Each structure stands twice: as structure tokens, then as C-alpha cells.
Amino acid sequence: MSTPHSPIKVIDSHTGGEPTRIVIAGIPDLGGGSMAEQSRVFREKFDWLRSSVANEPRGHDAMVGALLLPPQDPQNLCGVIFFNNASTLPMCIHGTIGLAATLVHMGKISSGSHPIETPAGLVTITLNEDRTVSVTNVPCFRERAGVCIEVPGYGQITGDIAWGGNWFFLIEDQGPAIKRENITELQAFTSAVKNALAVHHVRSQSGEEIDHVECFGPPVDPTAADSKNFVLCPGNAYDRSPCGTGTSAKLACLFADGKIQPGQVWRQAGILDSVFSGTVVALDETTVIPTVSGRAWILGESIYCFDESDPLRHGIPSSI
Ligand code: PYC
Asked: Could you give the angle at the alpha carbon of 128 between the alpha carbons of 125 and 129, nearest 5°?
């Protein structure tokens, strides 16, 4: 039995039901560039670490992992690189809320606002008195409205393309009803939409894949939320939380349609009816800076063992 690298320590939390696993020790040297550069090095050279943390048997399809890194600019609190069962993510808000709870648990922060470097850009966490965390995101915008695609088995589906820190295709009141009993149907529908986007070469203007599909319907309790969503993530797991970058994309669309004003609170429920609240500051007519708030809970801490006789010590590759 041996550990070919320094011990890997993780702290697990969940945010509205969606797990976050922060790697706090044992991270290899990623070269010390920007988080976008380090994320590329991580993808190219250390995919075993992503797979060890996120994939079965330690992880599962819904697991979002993150590397806690020193900031490039010492004025910032830290850097972070998010990843899941498939690859890295430019940004993740439920994960940033989980990171904030983890840093509190580690005794690194106890109050205030702190800038954090991510591959998508600089975001800010604010610890609120009620133990919620507000994440002020990167600039977000709707790129295209009313994009119509033919989805086999479902007909013509219309949605918006928006950037919320990840790329989203946002669909209102089409497909299966947004309720827990329909999770299998919702996964099939959103996967079919994602495939159709790929087949029809629908990408962002900068050529990036639209890798999150988000459906909206009415909330169960209109006094608690304004809308309920279901979000399919890259890697084909669905977000158990309302998805903070998805909520940011929604806020950008609502703002573009004149349906919310700067400062107005939007409450987004997820498939489990956990709620994120969000507001925007307008940068111009099409671009907003969303702030999304939610709460995370710490679940546990682990130190990983890597037994060389274990053929699956680096996780089961997602393609098996
Ligand atoms: O909360 O932004 C989010 C997120 C992205 C993927 C899973 N959760």
C-alpha cells in the first residue's frame, strides 16, 4: 500500500441538496497562473485527481469537486477550480457557497466579504448573519433569445442562450412538468435538447458548447419562490440545487426582457424546492452582475487512501 503523493484531504458540504467536495490538501503544483490557466493544466495533467474525487466509488455523478488554491493576487482570499464527473467548470455558485461554508468550518474566515479567483473571473462571497452566503458573480448576459430547435421526440423547442458563469439553454414551460416525480422524464428531455443543440451546431458566438440545459415552470408555493427549475449539467447529472450560475443566466434573461429591475429579488426554487435568491446590478442594457444567495451545510471530512493494488483507486472513468 502506498500514497504516491501528499495526502489528499477533502471537506464535503451540500448547498440546497447539491454536493460540493473541496480538496483542501494534496493538490499538485498547477503552475501558479490564472485560475483559467491552472484549470487547463489540471485537465491536461491531473485528470486522475478529478476522477478520484468526483467519480465513483468515492464520488457519484452529481458530485461537484473543487480545488482550494492560493490566489494569484494576494489581495484575494483564495482561488478555486470546480470540476464534476466529466471535466472542469468555469464557475459554480452552489460550489462557491459550499466553499464559503468550508472556509468558515476551517476557521479561515468568520464574517465580511472576500474576493475569490475562479476560471470565469473574480467573484465575491459575503457571509450573512443568517448563515446564508451571497455570491456576486462575473458579468452575465443573454446572448440570443427565442432560439428554435427541432428535438427528436419532442418537436420544436424554443429557448434562450445565456452566460451565467457557464453556458445555458433556458426553456420556459415546455417539456415535462417540473416536479420530482418527473426527474427521469426531465433528464430524458433535457438530454435530448442538449443532443439537438450539438447536432444543430448551436453554440455560443465565441464557439463554446452550450453544456447546461435549464427548464422552468411555476413554483409549488408562490409565496416561497417565483419559479421552479430543473438543470441538466455536463456529465448528465441534474443539479439538486436551483443552480446558481443557472439562476444568474435566468436573471440576465429576466433583465433583458424588462421583467426584473436592478435590486429586485428573484427567488429561484430547484427540483427539491430549495431556494436561491438573486438580484442584479446593471452594467449596461444587456449585461448584469448577479448576486445569488443560499446556504450550505458541512457534511464531513476525509483523508483519501490510494492502495496500489486497487485498480479503481483513481475512480471509475465516466465512460465505463
Ligand atoms: O450552482 O452554479 C451552480 C452549479 C453549476 C453546476 C452545478 N451547480
From this structure: 160
227 C-alpha to center of ligand 1: Å? 17
H or E element: which one contains 16? none
Ligand 1 nearest-atom number relative to CA 91: 2
Show which residues are catalytic: 92, 243
With the most atoms of ligand 1 within 8 angstroms of its CB, the residue from 21, 93, 293 to mutate is 93
pLDDT (mean) for 188-199? 98
The single-letter code of the amino acid at 229 is N
Write out pLDDT tens, residues 50-62: 999 999 999 999 9
**Residues 30-40, mean pLDDT to the nearest whole number:** 97
CA–CA dist 240, 272 (Å, integer) = 6
Q: Tell me, using a 6 A CB cutoff, whether residue 93 lines ligand 1.
A: yes
Half-sphere exposure of 302 (CA within 13 A, CB side): 14
